[in-house]
Amino acid sequence: MQRISIIQQGMDGETKVRWLSEHKAGFEIVQVMKLPAVLPVVIDEPEQYLAEIRDTDLVMTFVTQADILEEIARWCKEHDVVLVASGQKLSGRGVFCPPICCALVANDVLGPYAKLYGAPVLKAKAEGGVLKEIHVKRGAPCGATWLAAKKVIGMAVEEGITRFGLEVQFNCTANPAGWDPLWGSSPVHTAAKVHSKALEHALDEELE
Fold first, then answer.
1. Cβ burial, residue 52 (10 Å; 0-12/13-18/19+)
2. Angle at alpha carbon of residue 30, lines to 29 and 33, rounded to 5°
3. What are the pLDDT digits (tens) for 87-137?
4. Could you report the per-residue pLDDT of 32-69, keeping only the tens digit for each?
5. Is the separation of the CB atoms in 173 and 193 below 8 Å?
6. Using CA of residue 170, residue 174, residue 180, residue 182, what is the dihedral sign?
7. CATH class in words for 2-97
8. How far apart are CA 6 and CA 68, in angstroms?
9. Is 121-207 assigned to CATH 3.90.1010?
């Protein structure tokens, strides 16, 4: 069983913590550390904030304070632990920093977590130009993929593809004020695009 530790700053990542705690397969949440929402700009001894971190296989962090974030990365490297820090600018072996949580690509290093969560993988069926079925094989850890899939069943295909992205955008918990130059959009708009493309791809596969 894969062990996952989550480190929050304030309430950041709270929706994901709740969803992952209730919807898991092959992994367990062994620890949720909550750091203060407001932290000093500069912290000389960031390790003091992480003194209680437990043995784990994967750390998922929603911390934005730079010194603590670097300390988390250092700790993970020292203990050979995989780190997922969406939206951050870290690098190194076993470090994954997708622009948003639903852009995390599948990788064996990520273990069971990435088999269920990350970039969406769908199986869809349409009949008579109407969406009849969407099975989510892999989706966003905030649950937006599953919630959106329920909303578009029964819609015309073209409308459903667009609406699927909009429903994900509505449920996405990423910072809408951010701007990702790589994707040319804010995180929530990127999430919408990623999901609409995933549904379009799933329907194309169904026709092959």
1. exposed
2. 95
3. 999 988 899 999 999 999 989 999 999 999 999 999 999 999 999 999 999
4. 999 999 999 999 999 999 988 888 999 999 999 999 99
5. no
6. negative
7. alpha beta
8. 14
9. yes
